[in-house]
Design a protein that fits this description.
single chain; 16% strand
Length: 434
């Protein structure tokens, strides 16, 4: 009997040790995430460093929580240096040398398009927080690349629709009489948005007075300003980064260019602090198309676990960037899109598909089904799946249009989310007013 009791005691102790050891072992199993943004070069100040900040705030949040479903989070950061070739090399280095399980981030569409192809070739999972070019996913049938952002074509179409709906009432012109100019940096991002602009303009019946691309690194845009003066557009639709945006507007002012409205499309137009720094009060009444700032969403319409997170992201933003006049939508965008991965994709991959392999992650991503109000950005999440020409694209993502007025930003379109009426055209006395 003593021997039996001793044996039972040994077994019980062993089971107890095993029960404590298993969670410990699981908690020590990491998911290694390679995070790639532009921390130096022109794209850094144009918005990439803010996306990096948003993603890092959310990654640090989950690290502090102890990880996800027994997996601790380990982030390895890399600088794409505002160069596509460096972005590709860094992604490959993270996968082959750092042995990351996946890559996350990517600001520039010129980087996203080739990086997505290379990551797919290496059979690793890629979660895009930022870049918007349709060319990243369209007709490529990528298995392991997912984007919760809206596409660039959506940006371009929305801005044209906004003007189409307001042309007669605010600009006093029928669509056929309205002259529009589409100018854009000539990379994947600018080309895609411009394609959406052109499609929207034709749908509205606008007169496209000028459509012109330029290099984002061009040292002089005065020739473009001259063409615009000859074209005499009522509204300019601009897609650029920075410093090309600042350069264009400085030379436009010097050249005496006049028009009635300016609509930018994300990137450099989404960083108000940088715009104001380069252009001063000239930025007043500019429009920008982007996913809504998480600080402008109707928080009562969101899943109620999200408002405290929005508050946390804002507090961390203020610590990192004290004195910011308008919190850039870029920070909240990357934070929200990263949060979707950590709360919807990663736990499902671990619990349902047994881990963090590319196969498990992509299966989990395809099952995400968040309704409107399910993200900090207000929109839902449902990815296009097998057979779709845009496999991996979030079908429920949508941008909004904001207007900068007296150092504040207001959502003005669509009407369902508008915080105030749009000021259109430029008021008399402003730099571009006719």
């Amino acid at each position: 009997m003593k021997r039996i009791m001793l044996l039972v005691g040994v077994v019980l102790v062993a089971l107890a040790l095993l029960s404590t050891a298993l969670p410990l072992a699981a908690s020590q199993h990491p998911i290694k995430i390679g995070v790639v943004y532009d921390l130096t070069g022109p794209l850094a100040g144009g918005g990439s460093d803010l996306h990096y900040l948003g993603a890092k705030i959310m990654i640090d949040h989950f690290i502090k929580l102890g990880g996800v479903e027994g997996y601790k989070i380990e982030a390895v950061y890399a600088d794409a240096q505002s160069k596509p070739d460096v972005a590709i090399n860094e992604a490959v280095r993270l996968i082959e040398q750092e042995k990351v399980d996946m890559v996350l981030g990517f600001y520039s569409s010129a980087q996203c398009v080739p990086v997505a192809a290379r990551v797919e070739q290496l059979k690793k999972f890629m979660w895009i927080t930022t870049c918007i070019s349709s060319a990243v996913l369209e007709n490529r049938n990528l298995q392991y690349v997912f984007r919760s952002q809206p596409s660039g074509a959506q940006f371009g179409e929305l801005s044209m629709d906004f003007i189409a709906q307001n042309a007669k009432a605010k600009l006093g012109k029928d669509a056929k009489d309205l002259r529009v100019a589409i100018i854009h940096e000539d990379g994947a991002y600018g080309v895609d948005v411009a394609k959406g602009n052109e499609s929207g303009a034709k749908k509205a019946g606008f007169n496209i007075a000028l459509k012109e691309g330029y290099s984002a690194t061009a040292p002089d845009l005065s020739a473009l300003v001259t063409k615009l003066k000859r074209a005499r557009p009522d509204v300019i639709f601009h897609t650029g980064y920075n410093p090309d945006i600042t350069l264009f507007h400085r030379q436009a002012r010097e050249g005496g260019l006049k028009f009635q409205a300016l609509i930018g499309h994300g990137a450099g137009y989404g960083v108000y602090t940088k715009l104001k720094e380069g252009l001063g009060k000239d930025v007043n009444y500019f429009y920008n198309v982007d996913p809504i700032s998480i600080w402008d969403t109707n928080q009562k319409a969101l899943d109620q676990k999200l408002p405290p997170l929005i508050k946390m992201v804002g507090e961390e933003y203020d610590k990192a960037k004290p004195g910011t006049t308008i919190r850039s939508a870029h920070v909240g965008m990357a934070a929200s899109n990263s949060y979707v991965f950590f709360t919807e994709v990663l736990p499902r991959a671990i619990k349902k598909y047994g881990g963090v392999t590319p196969e498990a992650l992509q299966k989990a991503a395809l099952e995400v089904d968040l309704p409107e109000g399910g993200t900090m950005l207000g929109f839902g999440v449902k990815f296009a799946g097998e057979g779709s020409p845009i496999r991996g694209q979030n079908l429920r993502a949508a941008p909004v249009i904001v207007q900068y007025v007296d150092d504040k930003s207001y959502v003005v379109w669509p009407k369902s989310q508008a915080q105030r009426e749009a000021v259109l055209p430029f008021p008399a006395g402003t730099v571009y007013a006719k």
